[in-house]
Description:
The structure holds two protein chains of two kinds. By secondary structure, chain A is of the alpha+beta class. Chain A has 30 helices and 36 strands. The longest helix of chain A has 27 residues, at 234-260. The radius of gyration of chain B is 16 Å and the shape is globular. Chains A and B meet through helix 10, strand 17 and strand 18 of A and strand 4 and helix 4 of B.
Amino acid sequence: MDDLLREFLTETNESLDVVDNQLVKFEQDPNNAKILDNIFRLVHTIKGTCGFLGLPRLEALAHAAETLMGKFRDGMPVTGQAVTLILTTIDRLKDILGQLEANQAEPEGTDEDLIDLLHHMAEHGAEIPADEAPIAAAAPEEKPAAAASADTTSGSLVVQTLERALRPGEVSLDDLEKAFRETETEAAPAPKPVVATPAPAAAIAKPAPRKTAVEIEAVNESDKVANQSIRVNVDTLEHLMTMVSELVLTRNQLLEIGRRHEDSDFKVPLQRLSNVTAELQEGVMKTRMQPIGNAWQKLPRIVRDLAGELGKQIDLEMHGADTELDRQVLDLIKDPLTHMVRNSADHGLERPDERAKAGKPEQGTIRLSAYHEGGHIIICIADNGRGLNTERIKAKAVSNGLATESEIEKMTEAQIHKFIFAPGFSTAAAVTSVSGRGVGMDVVRTNIDQIGGTIDIKSVAGEGSSVTIKIPLTLAIVSALIVEAAGDRFAIPQLSVVELVRARANSEYRIERIKDTPVLRLRNKLLPLMHLKKLLRIDDGSSADPENGFIVVTQVGSQTFGIVVDGVFHTEEIVVKPMSTKLRHIGMFSGNTILGDGAVIMIVDPNGIAQALGTSVGSQHEINEENAAMRASSADQLTSMLVFRAGSMQPKAVPLALITRLEEIAANKIEQSNGRHMVQYRDQLMPLVQMDGVSVRSEGSQPILVFADDGRSMGLVVDEIIDIVEERLNIEVAGGSDGILGSAVVKGQATEVIDVGHFLPMAFADWFSRKEMRPSATAQSVLLVDDSAFFRNMLAPVLKAAGYRVSVAANANEGLGALRSGQRFDAVLTDIEMPDMNGFEFAETIRADQRLGGMPIIALSSLISPAAVERGRQAGFHDYVAKFDRPGLIAALKEQTAEVSRAA
Amino acid sequence: MSEKKHGVDGGVSEYVTAMIGGQLFGLPISRVQDVFMPERLTRVPLAPADVAGVLNLRGRIVTAVNMRARLGLPNEESDRPPMAVGVDLRGESYGLLIDSIGEVLKLSDDSREVNPVNLDPRMAKMAGGVHRLDGQLMVVLDVDRVLEIGAEAMAA
């Protein structure tokens, strides 16, 4: 292809993208003369170049568009129709350019249809007949006849076609003729630069463009900047980058040698070389940098078109378009970004009527922002639409087999939302049409993964959702943590490293095991661990101490896990080199690199490790966390227990799931109020409750266990927090004193399991009366149904202490599911106040079920009024027990289950 | 160079000879980039057994191939291969680990014989014929087949 032509194509395509953008802006802000000037100049340039290269079709089209825009500059009102028409013209230009690129010649055909429309609009402005607008907007090329006949100029005017198209500055015969005819009424000056006389029409339209000297200067300024830049072939830059990478490596090697020779003469020049190399590296990197706005250019047009198609009002805000990032990265995120913006427009935002109904402004907003954050770029795509439809995602996740229903029930919304990134999740039309989102989000994620980035989604139902992407600035040189495993060194990209933890036996951080799975308790969260050497199957058996090690806490997307390594050295800027094709199939590595000392080491791919960990592990562990309650209630499962000392030397324990958090509060922060100890905690006054024999410290710091439910907190004052253990909670000896459920063996030591229920009313007398509680028990096996995880967790140990096997359900439906699953229960304990189906309805449903008809049901409620009891009796409750009356509950349970066994 | 021409189609090939596990092999000289001492070999976890590791050769990352394992020869732990023959394939560098390097031989193509049918199948796959020399046989190595590591692993 002709060099000149190629150059022209590149330049023109770029210009057209800019025009697209500018026009959308212009439509929103028709008074902005500067934008109009920009567009005008761009189209003018295209026209000029086309004439020079002998491309008549393009030239004619560009000329017509320029004429119309010239009118706008002269003050003709800008209508949506006009913009649509020009956009259509630009699409046609692009189309022709595309064919030109493919065939190196302008395609056959005529653009009279569009040119006529353009001329017509230029002549008559917004008076264009209404029925013509849709033609222009929809498919003008298909209706050239209609468009031509719509020309209101009639009479002797014959369409006169020139052998060649008009050159810039030339005026078609038709135009001339029209000009003669209409000279008296309307001046139709050929487009002239800058100081055109406002046409009379300006009076009724917008104020004439105010072109000040300053603006002109600004334009000139930018022209100058453009002239100062040169085009460089991308390959040249890539090569330059490779060479700089080599230089960096050599520099690193020299520095390494320099380190070994303490008083070397090389020191000073080496330092100088090092600095120069760093600067050179930076400089070359800069040449690869492009503003992210380049990837956004097409978006305003896409959003505008989508808005039209969908009948929505969409405002696209873009912030930080000049944030720069590596060209390679930019190319890779272009499509995902477009995809996500489309998603937001299509599925995220509601139609104006829906928005109005929801009390939101009719115009929806999509906000795109980009900014730097410590070597990474954060890109955020947010909309204020309806948010993700959690229910649909749940249903889809279950039907896709990504999780079971019971697992899903235990997940937080955020966890559920993450399913949209699961492979193949989007394929079903049901999700896309109803909940929106999910269309190809797995593809988006894959793209982001590829460049070592992470993606996360947040969504609030009814308020919108936002996707956050974190990507490295560049792919070629990354900062990496150098670690050791089984004697070999590996690099872990710093991007995914969250923190480093030194684990040691008997310290705060200790590697624990659940069966054979190593875990770390970090700030009260369970972190799954992977030994790097085991993962890579290079375990040499050395440093067999399983409780020690360095843990690189790593985050990939929403998954956090720890990579256990033998040693951690330092961080180093490494030049990523691709793996040999023979080794590329190893998913654990993303590449290799040469270190300063000349050794080759592998770059660990955190994504690969996350996959090895099993995609489900991340969420599973969280499920486990949340369902420690479940585990607590089931006899042969492990329960996390917090072991502490309070009042006596004998250790005490409480199921960890009941505790909201552990705090150390400075003793001087503890205040006295109304004879009770209080502390200001998270802007609230939190009462402190002391166990027998515990006194509140007057100096130093006071450890407390915080229990919270429904926005209220209380602190239980203890002497010392000892440990967190995973144990089977088997209460062997029932407790004799208040506040003690009984004793259990925890880590080989008799430990008192405390009854949190005893202490809660000491903080708030009405703690239990705020919520209804519903337990249901059958002889030895009891089903406990309560929507409050707190009460489930609290009652399960109580019931267990009384010798029952306990199953729990978080709502009536789940309870019914359990009852109908064929599992045998001897009684049902149920809360009354529950969402969806309350305790009364639940009881009635059970009564109505023939197979379950005889099941004893006990209501747990703080509402003990004769009326409520009567209502309970009618619903079919066998007994009605106050929530805080634990002896009463046990007694009722005994009575009911005894009756059943008698009946049986 | 090619002073010795035998017959009509008889060309002369030059081979770099190398000992691997007690057997003499010849590599076509046109494929050999260089011969070097492999230093600081980094093993690659999870890699095919034939890949001994990777190393840095003048700023390039070279994949070292364990020729003994590749040819199905016994792996003697004690004598670590002290030499490597550098070859290129599609822009990537490989180092074939050998026990010792020998002289460069000019051999007539006519004297090359086809692989004996009972040759170890692993070796046969990579052998492009055999030359009878004084007192010993030299197996001609087909470098492209030697480097078909990934393909086999995938087929397996």
